[in-house]
Amino acid sequence: MTGPLIDIRGLTKTFPLPGSPLRRLTGQRPRSLTALNDVSFQIHKGEILSIVGESGSGKTTLGRALLRLEEPTAGEVLFGGQDLLKLGPGLMLAARRDLQMIFQDPWSSLNPRLSIRQTLAEVLAVHGIATGAGAQARIAELLALVGLPADAADRFPRHFSGGQRQRIGIARALAVSPSFLVADEPVSAVDVSVQAQIMNLLIDLRDTLGLTMLMIAHDLSVVRYVSDRVGVMYLGRIVELAPSRRIFTAARHPYTQALLRAAPRPDPNRRVESVALQGEPPSPINPPSGCAFHTRCPFADARCRAEVPLLTEPDAGHTVACHHHDRITEPA
After folding, report:
1. Most confident by average pLDDT, 103-107, 118-122, 130-134, 221-225
2. Which value, to the nearest 10 degrees, does the dihedral of the CA atoms of residues 104, 105, 110, 111 take?
3. Edge-to-edge strand order for the sheet containing 82-83?
4. CB of 162 within 8 A of CB of 194?
5. What is the DSSP-derived secondary structure letter of residue 233?
6. What span, in angstroms and rounded, lies between the C-alpha atoms of 16 and 29?
7. pTM of the prediction?
8. Contact, 201 vs 163, CB < 8 A?
9. What are the residues facing 171 on neighbouring strands?
10. Which terminus of the chain, N or C, has less C-beta within 10 A?
């Protein structure tokens, strides 16, 4: 890996909530939901960086905001040194040839009225890549790239299984020859029997095409063997980011420890000393003061309730936002 391909700085996304008549009559301020709260990290060329966390932690919003499918409220997304958030529509369309997304649900992300040939040809035409015979040759190449037969081009999405549809979604993302992919929970909606196939396909494509990927998942066990680095999100913030091996052997945040304990293990008899995760995440509409995790953390004290922990680097390449990271028991 070389230097950062993408540099995310202070990325914030706030969604305004509709106000009730009572709030307006009493002069109360409109409420909002902060899905991303001052998120900063880098993605290096050629790596697979996975972002994990519970539902509602902000993972999908992060991926969508990075590609401007959701417009961020504040921050910067530097791609090749250029801030994507400052690009006009024309320049952003051109940038999308380098930045593509694989969507979570292969059942709803494909137009049921278009054949696979029409779906892929539309992408090639919109981006001015190919039409006519050139487009047909590219379509055949894309289907082969994702392991589908050539005759799949003239069938419709309803003719395919969930795993095959996800392969089609991957082919659509690859049609413009991007350098960066956001894969939003790419295996959560497919059968367990084909999840490994899809993940192996993404690894092979990264190696073959030199891609860089941001992988979004809620299950640490899904990303363990495909990630170069893993970032853990909680209530809109990155709370830990480290090389994959260190996350799984030397996690320093109690939330990461709890996610590790919740992940399935090949050997259920193996004891792992870790922190139990209790309760539900707080509401992002009314987050707790200080460390957002303090309401569920066994290490929480008065400082945690009052002071937001900043990301620090206790070990090279390993950052964590916890006042008590030095007290966390490492996995066995």
Report:
1. 118-122
2. -130
3. 32-44, 4-16, 74-79, 82-83
4. yes
5. E
6. 11
7. 0.89
8. no
9. none
10. C
Q: How far apart are the first and last CA of the chain?
A: 29
CA distances 31 to 24, 34, 58, 255, Å, are 11, 10, 18, 27
> What confidence tier does 208 reach under pLDDT thresholds 50, 70, 90?
very high
> Tens digits of per-residue pLDDT, 299-325?
999 999 999 999 999 989 999 999 999
Alpha carbon 280 to chain centroid, angstroms: 21
Domain boundaries, the chain: 4-98+210-327
Backbone phi, psi, residue 131, to 5°: -140, 175
Contact, 78 vs 9, CB < 8 A? yes
Q: 21 is written with which tokens?
A: 């008549």
How far is residue 105's CA from residue 101's CA, in Å, rounded to a whole number?
A: 12
CA distance 120 to 127: 11
Pairing of strands 237-243, 318-320: antiparallel
The answer to whether the CB of 102 falls within 8 A of the CB of 181 is yes
Which helix or strand (DSSP H or E) is residue 245 part of?
helix 244-250
- Phi, psi at 169, each rounded to 5°: -60, -35
Residue 16 to residue 11: CA distance in whole angstroms = 17
Query: For residue range 254-268, what is the model confidence (pLDDT) as tens digits?
Result: 999 999 887 666 555
3-state secondary structure 200-229: HHHHHHHHHHCCEEEEEECCHHHHCCCCCE
Measured between alpha carbons, how far is 152 from 167 in angstroms, rounded to an integer?
11
Give the number of other Cβ atoms within 10 Å of residue 262's Cβ. 14
* Fold type of domain 4-98+210-327: Rossmann fold (3.40.50)
What is the C-alpha separation between 277 and 258, in angstroms, rounded?
5
Q: Kindly give the residue spans of alpha helices, DSSP state H, lying in 2-58.
A: 21-25
Contacts with 277 (C-beta within 8 Å, 6 or more apart), sequence order: 255, 258, 259, 261, 262, 296
User: Of 88-92, 217-221, 249-253, where does mean pLDDT reach its minimum?
Assistant: 217-221
CA-based nearest residue to 222, from 188, 255, 247: 188
